[in-house]
Amino acid sequence: MSDGSNALAAEEGIKLSSKNLRGSLLEDLGSSEPNLSGHSEHLLKFHGIYAQDNRDVRRERAQAGEPLEHIFMIRVAIPGGRLSSRQWLCLDDIAEELADGSIRLTTRQAVQFHGVLKFSLQSLSARLHSHALTSFAACGDVVRNTVMCSSLVSDDAHTHVTELADHIARTFKPATQAHWEIFVNGERAASIETGDEIEHSFYGDTYLPRKFKIAIAHPDENCVDVLAQDMGLIPSVHPELGAGYNVVIGGGLGRSYAQPDTFARLATPLTFVTPVELDDVIRAVLITYRDLGDRTNRRRARMKYLAVDMGIERFYAEIEQRYGRALRAPLPVVLTQADDHLGWRTLNDATLEVGLRVGAGRVRDDTKGRGLRSALRELASARALRFLITPQQDIVVSAIAPEDRSFVVEVLARHGVRDVADLGGVERSALACPALPTCGQALAEAERRLPSLVSDLQSTMDHTGLGQRRLQLRMTGCPNGCARPAVAEVGVVGRTKNSYDLYLGGGLRGDRLATLHHEKLKIDEIPAVLEPLLVRWREEGLVDESFGDFYVRVLLP
Ligand code: SRM
Ligand code: SF4
User: Fold this and answer.
1) Residue with the nearest Cα to atom 43 of ligand 1?
2) Closest atom of ligand 1 to CA, residue 256
């Protein structure tokens, strides 16, 4: 809800006066200051860049009267998470030379660099550009990186959707040339005129009220958490119209403790579309959101609130009006499971791929020159492969010739990359957001505390006799929910510096929200709270029943 004043959020004015996302970014980037002005920081997000500071040293710096340690995070939008060997090597070089030495795979199949200095932002962007990569529109009030099941990307059987994430990225990217002027050429390219007629797209001058997320699910599995999205596309076959997409809309997981009328919501079915109708339906939904979404309160500006506040029927009628035709009824949405894409698999064209676990998405070495980062670098240097980032922060190395299997196995083993068979049942699917020290919104640790929580929970599983049964754990440093704890079997959500809320009962199909089970637990208390529930799962659970399903069937009060 707005505060009643209906005053536009300050960010709306910044967008409006930004000259198509330029503002004074070029001047600010050229100054000798290590940071940028507030207005520029907001605009920077549209270019995929977040101004941050190293929160580990905040206090000691303040005590010493020193300024913040200003650093930047750059998010590279990678539709469907698909990269070539050359692109992977480019990312690896950047991590080494311009960032903190790590490549951070995200829950939306993008890549983040942390710890970048202001003076490196333009050269980093130019390097991305030279490898057909960009951070533009990875953040900001626009269509974000489109997520797509990695099996859809690599399977021949799904060639009709293989290019869809790229297509959506191209079609719904803002038209402005600002990014290329400011970050790639350094100055306005001579051939570029800045007339509105060239730069104007359906976004208009103030873009969307907030971010907008699209995912394309596999028809048979839900690794993308399709119902957590503003818009989900599920490839489906209509009995009369043939192949197309079942469209769901209005999902989103973020909440705010400060604002009790914020909530997580699963997307609801809108319509079935044929491939030729798809762009028009996406555009109609975006325009409805653009025109009617809340621009006064950014905490309540996501499309899910518009859908709920307006009422689904009226909201759908508004979309239909902008679409200009009646929307067809959707097909039933049935989600059965989520594949983690780990381990070896043979593709239809007889090439191979191997999915590798990446703890909290952080690709780095254990020691200099040895570890996952070096292993992937060696593979990318030696062969023309495909690297697919998954929505579980993992990586699939694909397009491996059958005769290269032993080479890949040898490289991975030499660098100590663990085989999927050696992963524990908790570790295998655990996710965490970056949280401290980079995220400005973090209330508590997440990524850095994940390994010890995984290990403690695995011990609990072991001594309760559950051993390697799967338990899906997702941890975040605040309720924004970046690692999607709101749909996890076990969601651990930062509440204060030293406490977490425990959510239980989401599931592997991603079709159910988890329920708040216990508030303000210290992290060390979590295994003990879970233990009696796990014992009952072992004793009373049905054959192959997951913990999330058991919790909802038996334990939920
Ligand atoms: Fe997120 C904000 C990291 C996926 C909901 N998210 C942030 C910021 C940029 C913090 C900030 O605003 O200052 C985090 C950067 C921290 C850092 O130091 O890197 C951040 N979000 C991430 C990533 C990297 C988590 C990860 O471990 O992979 C994911 C990057 C996605 C990408 O590549 O585009 C990421 N964020 C998500 C998801 C999951 C998803 O999209 O599938 C969600 C929940 C779904 C949703 O959007 O509802 C999510 N992030 C948020 C929110 C809450 C938004 C809301 O309106 O409810 C914020 C806060 C905000 O936007 O103001 C946020
Ligand atoms: Fe930051 Fe919160 Fe997202 Fe974690 S969930 S990255 S703490 S905004």
Assistant:
1) 482
2) 57
Ligand 2 centre distance from Cα of residue 447 (Å): 10
- Tens-place pLDDT, residues 151-164: 887 765 566 687 89
- Quick one: pLDDT at residue 192? 44
Q: What are phi and psi of 146, to 5 degrees?
A: -80, 130
* Cα–Cα nearest to 523, from 439, 429, 452: 452
**What CATH topology corresponds to 427-555?**
Sulfite Reductase Hemoprotein; domain 1 (3.30.413)
Q: Residue 142 C-alpha to ligand 1 middle, in angstroms?
A: 14
**CB-ligand 2 contact for 442 (6 Å cutoff):** yes
pTM above 0.90, yes or no: yes
**Cβ contacts of residue 512 below 8 Å, gap of 6+?**
266, 487, 505, 506, 548, 552
Q: Does residue 191 carry a pLDDT above 50? A: no
CATH code assigned to 141-174+194-338: 3.30.413.10
Which residue from 49, 108, 142, 482 has its CB within 8 A of the most atoms of ligand 1, so it is best to mutate? 482
- 481 CA → ligand 1 middle, Å: 7
Whether 51 has a pLDDT exceeding 50, the answer reads yes
Q: Where are the beta strands (DSSP E) in 293-391?
A: 343-346, 352-356, 362-363, 365-367, 370-371, 386-389
Cα of 266 from ligand 2 centre, angstroms:
19
Which one of 3.40.50.720, 3.40.50.10190, 3.50.50.60, 3.90.480.10 gives the CATH number of domain 343-422?
Answer: 3.90.480.10
